[in-house]
UniProtKB/TrEMBL annotation:
<keyword id="KW-0378">Hydrolase</keyword>
<dbReference type="InterPro" id="IPR027785">
    <property type="entry name" value="UvrD-like_helicase_C"/>
</dbReference>
<dbReference type="InterPro" id="IPR027417">
    <property type="entry name" value="P-loop_NTPase"/>
</dbReference>
<keyword id="KW-0547">Nucleotide-binding</keyword>
<feature type="domain" description="UvrD-like helicase ATP-binding">
    <location>
        <begin position="211"/>
        <end position="639"/>
    </location>
</feature>
<feature type="binding site">
    <location>
        <begin position="232"/>
        <end position="239"/>
    </location>
    <ligand>
        <name>ATP</name>
    </ligand>
</feature>
<keyword id="KW-0347">Helicase</keyword>
<keyword id="KW-0067">ATP-binding</keyword>
<dbReference type="Pfam" id="PF00580">
    <property type="entry name" value="UvrD-helicase"/>
</dbReference>
<dbReference type="Pfam" id="PF13538">
    <property type="entry name" value="UvrD_C_2"/>
</dbReference>
<dbReference type="InterPro" id="IPR000212">
    <property type="entry name" value="DNA_helicase_UvrD/REP"/>
</dbReference>
<dbReference type="InterPro" id="IPR048228">
    <property type="entry name" value="HelD_bacillota"/>
</dbReference>
<dbReference type="InterPro" id="IPR014016">
    <property type="entry name" value="UvrD-like_ATP-bd"/>
</dbReference>
<protein>
    <submittedName>
        <fullName>RNA polymerase recycling motor HelD</fullName>
    </submittedName>
</protein>
């Protein structure tokens, strides 16, 4: 705390800034209102202000320019209004708490010290010169996060600025009142961070501007690497840093980067709602938020239905020791691997020589262009041209071929039949169209006459211009054209490629696979994998693990579809994506930089990718020189006791450093049955609520187990319970029951692990899922087991938890 005199000075300054803010807001309000009204008026009277006259070319031109002028005026007013409104909103956001930090910085050679107050946006004195508050994203403010008092420097576009930081101070201000002031020495005040972290969890993520830590700041401000990989322990602030980074990028590049040029891939739709308020809170528009599944569905179109990752994980978690289960697991691992990526590239090369599969074009129950003709045509092209380009050539050829066939088709008998069924209106329409062409006929007529005179030859039969005949020809053309339209459309959409057949062909058997892919080995149980894959495809469905490789192959054959608008791609929970998925994202967004945040300790999917290991495919994606790697090891979410317990569940969890915030040890309760567990849990939930914890989660392993827990707790009279499934669109505060994989990325005041018994978490592959579930807890962690404890708990030192009998 600071002395009384300093305190009074700070309060006086705060009052002064608040007054100035109020004055500026009052000044802006009528201005913004005025501009809004003007813009509204202009829009309403738009057409009154322009004289529309198109009688002559000059009139037309004049009208055109008058519209343009009016448009420019309107957009200028709208722009000014938006700008003023933005300023007005920013100042209003500052009003309750104008700043949270201050540094006094004396730049080398200047001989005086500047007081730099830092808040969520800038506020400049009306003379336009003095900054009363600096936006936290300004270069000078970076020192607040990066340095302790003493020698300090910051980076500017003009180079490094060095000097001495003489003071570093933190404020807690509410509604214009100073609540706390801390002078800090080392990192950003543990005291303030303590307070922030001690609060309850929310249905919505919070911003961390006031307490960003140095290593998080490095993530936020990294602006050099094409690929930024962040490997961080559970609760180390990866998602928080990512969102602050978006806000930073939008600020730094505000002239050229818009929020919709940034896309964030989230683990599930519910997570989207969890993080959706952070950027608006910081005064920025939200980036695009999506899930990989959405992209898969768009890419695959309506023809094939991909399984979602949650169904896949449910299957993986199902307790089975059958051969089919083994094969599927082997298949999942293989289909996510770099080896399979290599195999598909090899396969595309092989297809360049033979084996392409086409779907013949059929028309009225006959083969118009059979698949064999396409194949012959395709392989007649120069083999040096890559497959996708040859497909483009084939497409052009097919369209031409269709034109020829269409013309021939006009003489077919069925066309005559169709003509007989046409009604008067169709004929009338054809007649009208012909009359529109009259000018052409008249010209043709004159041309013929001149030809006749010049060459002294007699005119051709009058019937050349016989309307009746032309009318029928036109109708024939129209009838056939109409029927050929879908054929042309499907050629334009490359539907003549049998992608499903191509993918299925790869799973024909071991020898064929090795020959086509150029690989030298296949995983165990390959025949079973092949059979499962083909069977699924036969139902026009795709396993989740097949969906991205399938799209990848499709693109190797058809050419890549790209989105060049997007400049930044963020992937949260990055460990859950396969190397295929990264490859896919890289190709889809060729002009984007990528930020991947993840934790291999929470890799719950079989296709997980190690983020930072020596041979990480993620580092290879853009190459080592274009990739930066940042590790976060300090965990902020959970109390020291919970982190101490959870980190021991991981083989190399020791490196995780808890933030020094204390609470009760995790509490273990062994029961005789799940029913008894439910009774205990109901009582514990009630007690936790009494203690003031508003956000409580009962975490089960699977969806089925969640439903069971939900019913059991309801039967115990547990109030306001909510069951969360993969369809639940938004997070709400309360007591939630959910499967562990849906709790990814979010946090709760208290977590109750529904059944931490050996029967539930017995397999080594379930370790990370168990760890993920435990690390969702901020303040309290309670575990129950109907029967023997899971081996992961049995292996722990008993000092890490309290046990209840
Ligand atoms: N610098 C910070 N100041 C205040 N709170 C922080 C800070 N860093 C992280 N936190 C808090 O820690 C909690 C965990 O943060 P976050 O969810 O971003 O972590 P994560 O690394 O994405 O976790 P997980 O991998 O478990 O999903 C959040 O409540 C967040 O507000």
């Amino acid at each position: 705390m600071i002395n009384e005199q300093d305190w009074n000075q700070e309060q006086a300054r705060l009052d002064e800034v608040t007054e100035k803010l109020r004055a500026r807001i009052a000044e802006l309000e009528p201005e913004a209102d005025g501009l809004r009204n003007q813009a509204g008026d202009l829009r309403k009277r738009f057409w009154e202000e322009v004289t529309v006259n198109t009688a002559t070319d000059e009139d037309f031109e004049e009208t055109f320019y008058s519209i343009k002028q009016q448009e420019a005026l309107l957009s200028e007013r709208e722009r000014s209004y938006r700008l003023r409104f933005q300023q007005w909103k920013g100042l209003n956001r500052l009003l309750p708490s104008p700043y949270f930090g201050r540094i006094d910085f004396s730049e080398d050679g200047l001989g005086f010290s500047e007081q730099v107050y830092i808040g969520v946006s800038s506020f400049v004195e009306s003379d336009g010169l003095q900054f009363l508050v600096y936006d936290w994203r300004t270069p000078i403010a970076s020192m607040y996060y990066d340095h302790s008092p003493g020698p300090a420097f910051y980076d500017t576009p003009g180079g490094l600025v060095s000097g001495t930081m003489e003071l570093k101070r933190q404020y807690q201000i509410r509604d214009g009142r100073l609540l706390n002031v801390f002078d800090t020495s080392l990192t950003i005040g543990d005291e303030l961070l303590q307070q922030v972290l001690g609060h309850g969890a929310d249905a919505q993520m919070k911003t961390i501007v006031a307490t960003i830590q140095k290593e998080q700041n490095a993530i936020i401000r990294d602006d050099k690497s094409r690929m930024l990989i962040v490997q961080g322990a559970a609760g180390s602030g990866k998602t928080s840093a990512a969102l602050q980074r978006v806000a930073y990028l939008l600020y730094k590049h505000r002239e050229r980067l818009k929020a919709d040029q940034i896309v964030l891939f989230s683990p599930n739709p519910m997570f989207n709602s969890y993080v959706s308020t952070v950027l608006p809170e910081l005064g920025e528009e939200n980036m695009q938020q999506t899930t990989f599944q959405e992209y898969l569905e768009i890419g695959l179109g309506a023809g094939l239905r991909p399984e979602d990752p949650f169904d896949q994980i449910e299957y993986v978690l199902s307790d089975s020791s059958s051969r089919a289960y083994e094969a599927r697991l082997k298949g999942i691992a293989y289909k996510a691997s770099a080896a399979f990526l290599h195999a598909l590239r090899g396969y595309a090369g092989w297809l360049g020589r033979s084996g392409m599969r086409f779907l013949g074009i059929r028309f009225r129950d006959r083969d118009l262009i059979p698949a064999e003709r396409m194949e012959a045509q395709f392989y007649a092209y120069d083999a040096a041209i890559n497959v996708a380009n040859r497909i483009a050539m084939l497409q052009e050829w097919l369209l031409k071929e269709l034109s020829v066939l269409e013309r021939e088709e006009r003489e077919a008998l069925w066309v005559q039949d169709e003509l007989d069924y046409l009604d008067k209106d169709d004929y009338a329409a054809a007649f009208r169209e012909l009359h529109q062409d009259r000018g052409v006929f008249d010209f043709a007529e004159r041309y013929e006459q001149v030809q006749e005179r010049l060459q002294g030859r007699s005119r051709r039969d009058e019937s050349d211009f016989d309307y009746a005949e032309r009318e029928e020809a036109l109708l024939r053309k129209q009838v056939v054209q109409e029927q050929f339209k879908p054929l042309r459309r499907s050629v334009k959409r490359l539907r003549f490629i049998d992608t499903t057949g191509l993918y299925a062909q790869l799973f024909g058997g071991r020898e064929a696979y090795l020959a086509m892919s150029g690989e030298t080995k296949v995983p165990a149980l390959w025949d079973d994998i092949c059979e499962q894959t083909r069977e699924k495809l036969g139902k026009l469905e795709l396993f989740y693990e097949d969906a991205t490789p399938y799209l990848y192959l499709k693109e190797l054959v058809e050419g890549v579809r790209t989105n060049t608008e997007i400049r930044h791609v963020f992937v949260d929970e990055g460990q859950d994506y396969s190397v295929f998925q990264y490859e896919f994202l890289k190709r889809l967004f060729p002009r984007a930089r990528m930020t991947v945040l993840g934790d291999f300790g929470q890799a719950i999917f079989t296709q997980a990718t190690e983020l930072h290991g020596a041979d990480s495919p993620l580092i290879r994606l853009y190459g080592e020189s274009d990739t930066s790697l940042i590790r976060l090891v300090r965990s902020y979410r959970s109390t020291r006791e919970i982190v101490a317990f959870a980190r021991e569940l991981l083989p190399d969890g020791r490196e995780i450093v808890p933030f020094e915030r204390s609470g009760p040890k995790p509490r273990l309760a062994k029961t005789a049955s799940r029913q008894q567990s439910a009774a205990r849990m109901a009582a514990d939930v009630a007690a936790l609520r009494d203690e003031g914890y508003a956000s409580i989660a009962v975490i089960a392993k699977t969806a089925a187990e969640s439903a069971e827990a939900y019913e059991a707790l309801r039967a115990q009279g547990c109030p306001s319970l909510r069951l969360v499934t993969k369809e639940t669109p938004t997070f709400e505060k309360g007591t939630l029951v959910l499967p562990a994989y849906l709790a990814k990325g979010v946090e709760f005041d208290a977590v109750l692990i529904y059944d931490a018994s050996e029967a539930t978490y017995g397999r080594e592959s379930e370790r990370k899922l168990f760890y993920t579930a435990c690390t969702r807890a901020m303040h309290r962690l309670l575990l129950y087991a109907a029967g023997e404890w899971t081996p992961f708990v049995r292996a722990l030192d008993t000092s890490l938890y309290d046990e209840r009998s």
